[in-house]
Amino acid sequence: MTAPTDKFRPPIRRAAESGWLKFVAVVVLLFVFLVGVKGLGDGFKLLGGEVLASFFSATRNPFVALMVGILATTLVQSSSVSTSMIVGLVAAPMDPLPIANAIPMIMGANIGTTVTNTIVSLGHVGRRDEFNRAFAVATCHDFFNFLTVMVLLPLELATGYLRRSATALASLVGDRTYGVEFESPLKHALSLGIAPVKRLADLLFGDGRGAAIVVILASAVLIYAALMLIVWVMRTAMASRVESFITRALGRSIVLSMIIGIVATVMVQSSSITTSLLVPLAGAGLITLNQAFPITVGANIGTTVTALLAWLATSGPHARDGLIIALVHLLFNLSGTILVLPVPAIRRIPLTAARWLADTATRSRRWALIYVIGLFYLLPAALALGNRLFR
C-alpha cells in the first residue's frame, strides 16, 4: 500500500509537522544569529585599536552617538539588528566600545526603529481621513521615544542612572555565567560556526585589516539575514495570533494592552511588526490612538529580548559589559514606560504631538515625507558627518 499523499494527510498532522519545521528553522536561525554576534566581536578584535579609536572618539559626543544609533537603525530597518551589533561591540574581546558611548547609541536605536511603521502609514496617504488616523498611530511611537530620550539622556549624563542600575543587576547574575564564559558546548559551537568565515577572510587578504573587514561585514550580514528570516518565520506562524492578541486588548486596561504588546513582540521578535500591524487597523478605524499607544509601549519593552539573546554569544573579559548594555536597553524602555504611561498629563504629550503632526501632514502630504526623510535620515547623517569634519 502506498503512503498517503500530503493532500490526504490529516490537517492536524500537517499543521503539527509544519509547526515543528518552523521551530527547527527558528532554532537554526537563532544559532546563525549568535554566530554573527560572535564573529562581529572577533572581527573588531582583528581590526586593531587605531581604527576603533577613531570611531569611538566620535561617539564620545553623546549627541553624535545618539545620531549614529538613529541612522544605523533606520538603514537596517531594525533596532534588533543595531542593538545586537552594539552588544557585540561592547563585549568585543579587545578594544571594546565603552559602555558610556554605547548608551546614547541604544537610545538612538529606539528612535530609529519607529521609522518602519511611519513608512507603513504612508501607504494610506491617498485617503485623507484614513491617513490621518494611521499617521497619528504611527508617530505616537516616535514621540514616546523622543520624550523618553529627552528626559533620560540628560539624567544619564548627569548621574549614570542607567549604567549604574544595569551594572547592579548584572552583578546578580554571577561572574561565571557571563557570556557562557565556562567551556560550554554553545561557545565551542559558535567558534566553529564563524571559523569558515575567518578562514576565507585569511585566504583573501591574509591576517590584516582586509580580513577583519570581511569578517565584520559577513557577521553583520549573518545577523541581519538571520533576524529578518526569524521575523519572517515567526510572522507566518504567529501573525494571526498576534492580531488576535491585539484585538483582545482593544478597550481593555492599559496594563493588559501593554502586556499584549510585550508578548506579541516577543512572539514575532520584532517591535516593527507589532506596531506596523496597528497602523492599518487605525487607518480602517478599528483602533483608536488611545488604544494603540499602550500596545506600542509594550512592543518597546518586548524588543529588548533580542539584545539579551545577543549577549549569550559574547565571551571574554568584556562579556559582562555586553550584559550591562543589554540591561541598559531594557531599563531604558522600562523607565520610559514608568515615566509616561501612568500619569495622564504626561501620557497626553506624545498623543497630542502625534495628532498635531497627523493634522499637519494631512493638510499637506509633503510634510509627511519631509518628516520621515529629514528626521530619520538626513539630520542624523548630516550631524554625524559634520562632527567628523569639524572635530
Sum up the structure in keywords.
391 residues, disordered N terminus, 81% helix, 17 helices, mainly alpha
Describe this structure in words.
- This protein has helices spanning 11-47, 49-58, 62-76, 79-90, 99-112, 115-121, 128-159, 161-171, 185-205, 209-249, 254-268, 271-283, 289-302, 305-311, 319-340, 344-363, 366-390.
- By secondary structure, the chain is mostly helical.
- The protein has one domain.
- It is built from 17 helices and no strands.
- The longest helix has 41 residues, at 209-249.
Instruction: Characterize the overall form.
Output: globular
Mean pLDDT comes to 78
Low-confidence stretches: 1-6, 176-183
Helix/strand-derived category reads: mainly alpha
Radius of gyration: 22 Å
The total of beta strands comes to 0
Major sheet characteristics: none
Helix content: over 70%
How much of the sequence lies in strands comes to: under 5%
Helical stretch count?
17
H and E order: HHHHHHHHHHHHHHHHH
End-to-end Cα distance, whole Å, is 78 Å
Structural domains: how many: 1
How are the elements arranged and paired?
Blueprint lengths: L10 H37 L1 H10 L3 H15 L2 H12 L8 H14 L2 H7 L6 H32 L1 H11 L13 H21 L3 H41 L4 H15 L2 H13 L5 H14 L2 H7 L7 H22 L3 H20 L2 H25 L1
